[in-house]
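Hi F.,

I've been meaning to write this up properly since the lab meeting, where we talked about keeping a consistent format for the predictions we share between groups. The idea is simple: the sequence comes first, exactly as it goes in, then the structure tokens exactly as they come out, then a line or two of notes. No screenshots and no reformatting. I'm using this chain as the first example so we have something concrete to point to.
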Amino acid sequence: MGHIELRDLRDDDLDAVFEMMRDPQAVEMAAFTAADPDDRAGFDAWIARLRAYPDALAWVVTEDGAFAGTAGLFTTDGDREVTYWIARDAWGRGVATETLGILVSREPERPLFARVASHNAASRAVLARAGFTELSRNAEFAPGVGREVEEIVLVLMPTLD
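Output, unedited:
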């Protein structure tokens, strides 16, 4: 693994983000994605909504300066959540672990939540290493794979000082 950084999402990143989020293996792992990952107009509308949301923060993950994924923080139903999507060519080298560590250090609010498809063992392991613990499991329809998938909600609680 090279040097990992998070930088603000820019317009010139959108083509790379769109291509990453179309990767069939990545869509299978993420599961809770767009119903049609090839729909560029839908992707552009989603990005516009994300950027307009005042509590959402979106970054590009870079490894030695090159695109390696995306990461973000947002609030839903009053809960602060983390999200990350690592490009497949960066899988298995600790990029997700380092990215999540940076995200957690940037967000002081606790509890902090995350969601993952139960079959995504790699992402579950990344979250566990960062201190997230399972809170609940729910069967939810996953548009990206067109079927019901078990979603795990995890939480990172405040540390006792």
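Notes:
The mean pLDDT is 96.
The two ends are 32 Å apart (CA to CA).

If this format works for you, I'll send the rest the same way.

G.
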